[in-house]
Amino acid sequence: MTPRVVFPNKILPYLLVAPQLAITLVFFYWPASQALYQSMLREDPFGLKSKFVWFDNFKKVLADPNYINSIHVTAIFSIATALLSMVVALILAVMADKVVRSRNLYRTLLIWPYAVAPAIAGMLWLFLFNPSIGSLAYALRWMGIPWDPLLKGDQAMVLVVMAAAWKQISYNFLFFVAGLQAIPKTLIEAAAIDGAREFKRFWTIVFPLLAPTTFFLLVVNTVYAFFDTFGIIHAVTGGGPGKATETLVYKVYNDGFVNLILGDSAAQSVILMVIVIALTAVQFRYVERKVHYG
Question: Is 31 within the bounds of a domain?
Answer without folding.
Answer: no
